Amino acid sequence: ILYFVIADLALIDPMYQYSLEFFSRLFNIRLEKAAKSEVLHERLSLLIADVTENFYLNICRGLFEEDKLLYSFLNAIQIGRNGGDISADEWHFFIRGSMTDFSSESDQAPQWLDEGLFIKLLGLQEASLRFQGIAEEFADNEDDWKEWLRSPSPHTDPMPQGWSERLTSFQRLMLIKVCREELLVFA
Known about the structure:
Layout: H1 2-8, H2 20-33, H3 40-61, H4 65-82, H5 88-96, H6 115-127, H7 134-140, H8 142-150, H9 163-166, H10 169-179
């Protein structure tokens, strides 16, 4: 996982090109220096933590400051996707939005809610079962959602109706992107 994130950095800036030899050398060093354990499961956990941290630190030394956050995000996303915490549908929605045309359902949007936002909420419902009913929640709990949407920091405020507890961290990020994309970097 980490190698492919590192290899993809060259797409951000051609200066970020790391060879497989560099990766292998660093990996072998970490195998030798990581804490040891006779129990296989513990040893693997120690290696994963050590390799992840040291690769991050080594690669960050060679990145421009503005690219470090993106590198952290890409690492977290790939680890989450590999671990099954982020589904392919959720990732695709985050990157591209919904591929379904919900414009015929825009007339169901509550008066107070922008039609474009309502359509994006319908896309969220399509992307993940965890979002089922979110569009109706916006309609049924207008005051709570209005307050949350107008908050200067919805990315840190609890979401209305217990949605903060229902969603994973990435799913909360998806909802922030749909509702207040300008705050995505802070979320």
